[in-house]
Amino acid sequence: MPISGMVALAIGALYFLVPVFATIKFSVEQGHAGFGLQAYRQIFDDPQFRHTLWFSVQLALETTVVTMALMVPTVYWVHLRLPKIRAAVEAVTILPFVVPPIVLVVGLFDFFKSFSPDWLLQDFVFSPKFLVCAYVVLSLPFVYRALDAGIRAVDIQTLTEAAESLGASRSRTLFRVILPNLREAVLAACLLTFVIVLGEFTIASIALYQTFPVYITTIGSAQAYPAAALTVISVGLTFVAAAIFLVLGRIGLRKRRTALAAGMTSVAPAAVAKLGEA
Amino acid sequence: MGPEGTGAVTLSSIVAERVDTVAAPGPLPRARRRAPLAWLGAAPFFVYASLFLLLPAGDVLLGAFRSEQGDWTTANVRQLFHAEYLHAFENSIRISIYSAVVGGLVGALICYAALHPGAPRWVRTVFTAFAAVASQFGGVPLAFFFISSIGTLGVVTQFLKDWMGIDIYAHGVTVFGFWGVFLAYVYFQIPLMLLVLAPAVDGLRAEWREASESLGADALTYWRSVGIPVLAPSFLGAMVLLFGNAFAAQATAYALTSGGYNIVPLEITNVLNGNVVSDPHFGQALALGMIVVIAIAVLIYLPLQRRAARWMT
Question: How many Å lie between the alpha carbon of B13 and the closest alpha carbon of chain A?
Answer without folding.
Answer: 6
